[in-house]
Write a structure and sequence with these properties.
By secondary structure, this protein is of the alpha/beta class. It is built from 4 helices and 5 strands, in the order ββαβαβαβα. The radius of gyration is 13 Å and the shape is globular. This is Anti-sigma factor antagonist.
């Protein structure tokens, strides 16, 4: 089965944080695009980074590793990182490998923004 191309779009939010919208397959073949987007985050990230996973169609162990790398990358500068919108399969994967204890997950980007800016 061919990969669905990965797109990662960065949106600065009016609340001062950064929203990343991820769409497509987050896997071994597309991890480089995700890594570059994380490395290219602006130095000033305000109250946090929100990664919207609602457009992710597939995620493998490499994709999970990339999410952990993103967490460590933002945390090294003291910036909170939260996830939003994972589908049921991805939510289950996060739970199985224990990443539900590492990440705070919200249903929508709006809920994440509200929590980070409260």
């Amino acid at each position: 089965m061919p990969d669905t191309p990965l797109t990662v779009t960065t949106h600065p939010h009016e609340a001062g944080l950064v929203l990343l919208h991820v769409a497509g397959d987050l896997d071994f073949h597309t991890a480089g695009s995700f890594r570059r987007a994380i490395e290219d985050l602006p130095e000033s990230r305000g109250p946090g980074v929100v990664i919207d996973l609602s457009g992710v169609t597939y995620c493998d162990s490499t994709g999970l590793t990339m999410l952990v790398r993103a967490y460590h990358h933002t945390r090294s500068s003291g910036t909170p990182l939260v996830l939003t919108g994972p589908d049921d399969k991805l939510t289950r994967m996060l739970s199985i490998v224990g990443l539900d204890r590492l990440f705070t997950v919200f249903d929508t980007p709006e809920a994440a923004v509200a929590a980070l800016t409260a």
